[in-house]
Specification:
The structure holds 2 protein chains of 2 kinds. Chain A is α/β, with parallel strands linked by helices. Chain A has 2 domains: 218 residues, Rossmann fold, CATH 3.40.50; 82 residues, Alpha-Beta Plaits (2-Layer Sandwich). Chain A has 10 helices and 14 strands. In chain A, α3 packs parallel to α5. The longest helix of chain A has 16 residues. Chain A is elongated, with a radius of gyration of 24 Å. By secondary structure, chain B is mainly alpha-helical. Chain B has one domain. The chains are: A alpha/beta, B mainly alpha.
């Protein structure tokens, strides 16, 4: 399947000389949810802004649905919706007029039924005649989403949509994202909440210092980079790990009350049964055991550290 | 051409005008009335007619120009500066819109507001003097050209301005003095010869003079010169805007 967005060697150097994007190449598949992770200033927003037409790329090309974002900007922008990171919204317009304005900007005919349903889905309908300045931060965020969806885009960019958002709105937001995905909308989001990427994304891209470090399916990423740990709580405190167990590279906790066995899920080698058996044979008695898998957050932190 | 987008930008800008209708109308009505009381009645009473036109009537075109020049600039500059300032410009930039369409929306709205304003001023003036318009079509043409040109100029200022102070600097410190010194309230023939020559460098002179000619065929420079000057200024503004759009000046990084 052809990618819906194809980014080829995209670079952006600002007038100050700051290189925000360095040779980014990335294909985004139609209908997927791609999460872009990266620390502040990594280049996530610049990447989104370049695709949407807010920032001019210094080099490289981007095509959206096969069209170039510079030469065929009308066709590419028509199918893109953008929810910016900041709560950049007017003050004196009403919710209803601002979503109608957005729809008109994208050249779409009036469609009251669609916009009404959209506001209902976003729990905004009863606020439709309120002025934007009177809304709470969370409500403004909802309005930004409504504006981005007002022209029925095929691609939606969500730039840190859950920053400073309460639990209820966050849940609503992910429900909307899932609904949109089910209707075939491609979603690209950036987030600081790694657990969210873990929960919702199909693929995860990690950006740091303007470079795309990797893009993997979330499952593959976790399987290939994820580590599992077997932690055994001991009945009695020990001072050192018995000699017979040194082959397993066990780690003793500082207090000597537990041992940790770290293993790679893909690695050939000793299996957990062997480890447990050998521990028992060495005369260690354990009262409890737990297995933990590294989260995307651990993977992310490791990767960014590695590059630094 | 994305006509729907032009329409929503235009209507959105006009909404602000209607929302502040009282200020929009009351302020020019009051200032026009004040000018007539001070210049027309108090001072004008001791000034002879100028080239056969009573002083009160003579200042009508200049007064109208003073308001529409400053208002065109401030409306258009504020219109584009405000979304830039609040960040809502992202939506305009990411919409399937060419810069030209953005321009038509913003400048069209600012020019429309100025035209309405000019009508309000002329109606107010008619309560103080008996209006005489010899060449209404010329008058309207000058008015429309001036409104468009100075709205374009305002748009350029709005793009250029990095803060609210800069937004105020040009209308207050440059345009207002140029209008006052450009023969709005006098004929330059009343000045010493040296200052007449200096005044010829003031672009506003040509606007006021042409506009005044369309009222009572009294002008400081010929109508052809006036028209040429305003077209040159319009062309210059368009060239600057074209360059700004091409380079994304202050809009896109």
């Amino acid at each position: 399947m052809n990618p819906i967005i194809s980014i080829d060697n995209l670079c952006k150097t600002y007038d100050t000389g700051f290189e925000a994007l360095k040779n980014i190449s990335l294909d985004i598949k139609e209908g997927e949810i791609l999460a872009l992770l990266g620390p502040n200033g990594a280049g996530k927003t610049t990447l989104i802004s370049a695709i949407c037409g807010i920032v001019s790329p210094s080099a490289g090309t981007v095509t959206v649905a096969g069209k170039d974002i510079i030469n065929d900007f009308r066709q590419t922008r028509e199918i893109i919706g953008l929810v910016p990171q900041e709560l950049t919204i007017g003050a004196f317009e009403t919710v209803w007029s601002t979503v109608n304005f957005s729809r008109g900007l994208f050249g779409c005919k009036k469609n009251e039924a669609y916009l009404e349903q959209l506001l209902k889905d976003l729990s905004l309908f009863d606020k439709k005649n309120d002025e934007l300045r009177a809304l709470s931060g969370g409500m403004k965020r909802r309005v930004l989403i409504a504006k981005a969806l007002s022209h029925e885009p095929k691609i939606l960019f969500l730039d840190e949509p859950t920053a400073g958002v309460d639990v209820e709105l966050r849940k609503d937001m992910w429900a909307i994202v899932r609904k949109l995905r089910a209707s075939g909308v491609t979603i690209i989001l950036t987030t600081h909440y790694i657990e969210e990427a873990e929960e919702i994304a199909d693929r995860v891209g990690i950006i740091n210092n303007g470079e795309l470090l990797l893009v993997e399916t979330k499952d593959h990423l976790m399987a290939s980079l994820g580590k599992k740990q077997l932690i055994l709580e001991l009945n009695e405190v020990i001072e050192t790990i018995p000699e017979s167990l040194t082959q397993f590279n066990l780690e003793l906790s500082p207090k000597g009350s537990s041992v940790t066995y770290t293993y790679d899920t893909t690695e050939e080698g000793a299996n957990i049964a062997d480890v447990i058996h050998s521990i028992s044979e060495a005369g260690l008695v354990f009262s409890d055991l737990k297995i933990s898998q590294s989260s995307l957050e651990d993977i992310f932190v490791d990767l960014v550290k590695e590059v630094a | 051409m994305n006509f729907r987008a032009i329409k929503v930008i235009y209507l959105n800008e006009m909404t602000r005008f209607w929302q502040t209708l009282f200020q929009s109308i009351a302020s020019p009505v009051i200032s026009t009335a004040l000018y007539f009381i001070v210049f027309g009645a108090a001072i004008g009473a001791s000034i002879d007619s100028i080239e056969g036109v009573s002083y009160g009537l003579f200042i009508v075109p200049g007064l109208t120009m003073l308001s529409i020049l400053t208002q065109s600039i401030s409306n258009a500059s504020f219109g584009i500066f405000f979304p830039k300032f609040t960040g809502t410009i992202y939506e305009i930039l990411s919409a399937p819109l060419s810069f030209f369409e953005v321009l038509i929306g913003y400048v069209g709205a600012a020019a429309s507001k100025s035209l309405i304003l000019a009508a309000v001023i002329l109606i107010t003036a008619s309560f103080f003097v008996e209006l005489q318009i010899d060449h209404p079509i010329w008058m309207l043409s000058f008015l429309v050209l001036t409104c468009i040109t100075f709205s374009l100029f305002g748009f350029i200022i709005g793009l250029w301005a990095g803060n609210f102070e800069k937004l105020q600097v040009v209308p207050l410190l440059i345009v207002t003095p140029l209008v006052f010194l450009g023969g709005s309230f006098y004929s330059i023939s009343m000045l010493p010869e040296f200052w007449q020559k200096v005044t010829l460098f003031n672009p506003v002179l040509y606007l006021v003079s042409g506009f005044r000619w369309s009222f009572f065929e009294v002008s400081d420079v010929s109508i052809g010169t006036s028209l040429t000057m305003i077209l040159i200024f319009l062309g210059a503004c368009m060239a600057i805007v074209a360059w700004m759009f091409k380079t994304g000046y202050r809009l896109k990084q």
